[in-house]
Amino acid sequence: MDIHIIPCLKDNYAYIVENKKTKSACVIDPSEAAPIISFLNTNKVNLKYILNTHHHEDHIGGNLELKKKFNSQILGFEKDKNRIPGIDILLKNKEIWNFEGSDVLVEHVPGHTSGHIFYYFKNEESVFTGDTLFSFGCGRLFEGSYLEMINSLKKIKSLPHKTKVFCGHEYTINNLKFCMEIDKNNSELKEKYTQINNSIKNKLPSVPCNLSDEIKLNVFLKFDDLKFKKRIGFEDLNEVDFFKKIRDLKDNF
Ligand code: ZN
Ligand code: FE
């Protein structure tokens, strides 16, 4: 299975997962239809399914036009059935959906929105995290508590560490600047910054990132890392207070 990165709108990514043999594909979070149609037509690929991580406009904007054009089926979390346009297949938490013989684990990860889910493609060792986990960042909390978001991030952290992370937005440089502000003098962060800054300058996406790098360096995933908390002087904060502190600092960064 091939995964194609499709830049959309200002800083969104949609992803097309294509079975090379059958020329069938699904798309994750089509913000808009035009770039998806252009890719599918150029490569003569048929769009069987549209997968949404959550109901925000910049993740579902292309749903109806694509569904009409390719006769695709739309999938989303069962509890978001009234706010995902054109939804056909209602997914449950921990359900395993099958795409072209490939198992896809669906998990409910509330926090950014109450109905957010991720899609983990087992064979591809890839997770599509929408606006829950970003590279070196995480989504804002619009409909969930800090504790819910921590538990959602824990679900992502518990995937195999070699998992590739495909997130919903290209926010990586700004996120890295924030991580470097919190975790000063971390040479690995500085290296990442140099490397990704070069990619962005050459108009290359920073995605996918590696889950292992995120666990090691993303300050939003450090709520349970005592050594880290001590290093930055937050050893007195429990998981929720630590996460709240980091999230609040980022919201005002
Ligand atoms: Zn969103
Ligand atoms: Fe978004």
Describe the structure.
Helix content is about 35%, strand content about 25%. It is built from nine helices and 14 strands. A six-stranded mixed sheet has the order 1-2-3-4-5-6. Helix 5 (about 170-180) runs antiparallel to helix 6. The longest helix is centred in the C-terminal third of the chain and has 15 residues, at about 185-200. The structure holds zinc ion and fe (iii) ion. Zinc ion binds next to loops.
Q: Could you give the order of strands across the largest sheet?
A: 1-2-3-4-5-6
DSSP summary: helix tally: 9
End-to-end Cα distance, whole Å, is: 39 Å
Query: Which CATH architecture?
Result: 4-Layer Sandwich
Here the CATH topology equals Metallo-beta-lactamase, Chain A
Structural class based on helices, strands and sheet pairing: alpha/beta
What value does the average pLDDT take? 98
